[in-house]
Amino acid sequence: QVQLVESGGGLVQAGGSLRLSCAASGSIFSNNEMGWYRQAPGKQRELVAVVRSGGSTNYADSVKGRFTISRDNAKNTVYLQMNSLKAEDTAVYYCNVKVWTLFATGDYWGQGTQVTVSL
After folding, report:
1. Assign residue 74 a region: left if phi > 0, alpha if psi is -120 to 50, beta otherwise?
2. Is 85 a residue whose pLDDT tops 90?
3. Alpha carbon of 28 to those of 5, 22, 34, 76, 102: distances in Å?
4. Is residue 4 within 8 Å of residue 97, measured between CB atoms?
5. What is the mean pLDDT of residues 5-28?
6. CA gyration radius for the chain?
7. What pLDDT, on the 0 to 100 scale, is given for residue 108?
């Protein structure tokens, strides 16, 4: 089992910045992917950014150049630095961790943190 604790959401004006953090504890296998997804009202949950244990990253086109995902392996923590925020970034942001070995997989979600960007 993996437990995730998110922090850093809040209210910010358009053009501002926020930093989300997600600390993971439990069975973090060496093969893993940590990331952030978001869900706006009336919309489906969508990928924002992920970073894998090998260091590769993927970003949604809508956040490229504005958001940066990073991880601290010693702390099992993933961060999302969000700059130049727009009203359309308003959503509940969820931390996600995927782990896998030859014999087991796991897919874990945080409780979500609200990010609201005002005009």
Report:
1. alpha
2. yes
3. 14, 13, 10, 8, 14
4. yes
5. 94
6. 14
7. 95
- Give me the phi and psi of 62, to 5 degrees please: -70, -15
Q: What would the 3-class secondary structure string for the chain be?
A: CEEEEEECCEEEECCCCEEEEEEEEECCCCCEEEEEEEECCCCCCEEEEEEECCCCEEECHHHCCCEEEEEECCCCEEEEEECCCCHHHCEEEEEEEEEECCCCEEEEECCCEEEEEEC
The C-alpha atoms of residue 75 and residue 113 are separated, in whole angstroms, by 20
Would you state the structure tokens that stand for residue 49, as one six-digit string? Answer: 């950014």
Two tokens at 25? 């504890």
The sign of the dihedral angle between the CA atoms of 25, 29, 30, 33 is: negative
Count the residues in the chain: 119
The per-residue b/e assignment along 59-93, b for 16 or more CB within 10 angstroms, e otherwise, is: beeebeeebbbebeeeebbbbbebeebeeebbbbb
Give residue 90's pLDDT band: very low, low, confident or very high (50, 70, 90). Answer: very high
